[in-house]
Amino acid sequence: MSSPDWVREALASTRLLSNLSDELMDQLATSFVERTYQKDEAIFHQGDPGDALFVIASGQVRVEKEILDGTPVTLALRGPGAVIGELALLDGAPRSATVYALEMVKGLSLARSSFITFLGDNNEALKSLLGILSQRLRESDQKIEDLGSKTLVQRLGGVLLQLAETEGKAAKDGIVLSSTVNYQLLTGLLCTNRESVSRAVRGLRDEGLLDKSGRSFLLRDPQGLSDLYHGD
Questions:
Q1: How sure is the predictor about 1, in pLDDT bands with cuts at 50, 70 and 90?
Q2: Is the pTM of this model over 0.90?
Q3: pLDDT over 70 for what percent of the chain?
Q4: Are 148 and 216 in contact (CB under 8 A)?
Q5: pLDDT per residue over 123-177, tens digit each?
Q6: Taking Cα atoms as reference points, which of 130, 64, 69 lies closest to residue 101?
Q7: 9-38 pLDDT, tens per residue?
């Protein structure tokens, strides 16, 4: 049975599956199931069985983890082309985080049994998966390092620059971030409280590095933010 073109395009946009041959891509595409989630709906919860892989075709999701005292910490944003839920599929352990749709999300789900069989038959896909996991581990290590060595204002500058890479659009006065980047999201990403984030934002605005464009953040001086983050 053939799959819609958008399904093959969505799978081909992922780092995990981008190197597959057309024949193998067509074969694998028929095993995925289309899924749609509304804004704020959970795609899966922390502690759920790791029974499926999820590929984002459109929309944005927030990856959130509860720490020991129950405080939610935002680990990352993921958008089109991202693969989520892969860690629990490898070891069979429960989901390590909750994933929420920030807007309407369209995606594709693949059962764990099919995913494991696919990896066993395709060394290139296995190598790509290891690369994805290594990248996510480095991101976590960097966040831990920043928590111990940088001020909140510096960390905010670094987070805004990271978001600009995926959520930013060039504007006359700098880079405008997507409206999904709000105080609630920044609070989670920075592992702090709303009041502290508000003070840090005011500090960046006073320095002429950050502003607002309607409901969206405007990075007026990306290089200045980079210098601040690196302590230059």
A1: very low
A2: no
A3: 98
A4: no
A5: 877 787 788 878 878 877 777 777 778 999 999 999 999 899 888 899 888 999 9
A6: 64
A7: 898 898 878 877 888 888 888 889 999 999
Strands laid side by side in the 98-101 sheet = 42-44, 98-101, 61-66, 72-78
DSSP-based three-state secondary structure for 192: coil
Interacting residues of 153 by C-beta distance below 8 A, sequence separation 6+: 200, 203, 204, 228
Q: Looking at the predicted structure, is the pLDDT value of residue 90 above 80?
A: no
Same domain, 120 and 93: yes
Place of tokens 């989901």: 95
More confident residue, 66 or 47: 47
- Number of domains making up the chain: 2
Domain membership of residue 143 (yes or no) is no
User: Which token pair is 47?
Assistant: 């502690």
Q: Please list the helix, strand and coil fractions of the chain in percent, rounded to the nearest 5, in that order.
A: 45, 25, 30
Secondary structure class of 115 (helix, strand, coil): helix
Q: Token digits for 168?
A: 């930013």
- Write the DSSP assignment of 65-100 as a string of letters: EE-TTS-EEEEEEE-TT-EESHHHHHH-PPPSSEEE
The answer to whether position 142 is within a domain reads no
Q: Which residues pair with 111 in a beta bridge?
A: 52
CATH of the domain at 75: 2.60.120.10
Three-state SS letters, 1-63: CCCCHHHHHHHHCCCCCCCCCHHHHHHHHCCCEEEEECCCCEEECCCCCCCEEEEEEECCEEE
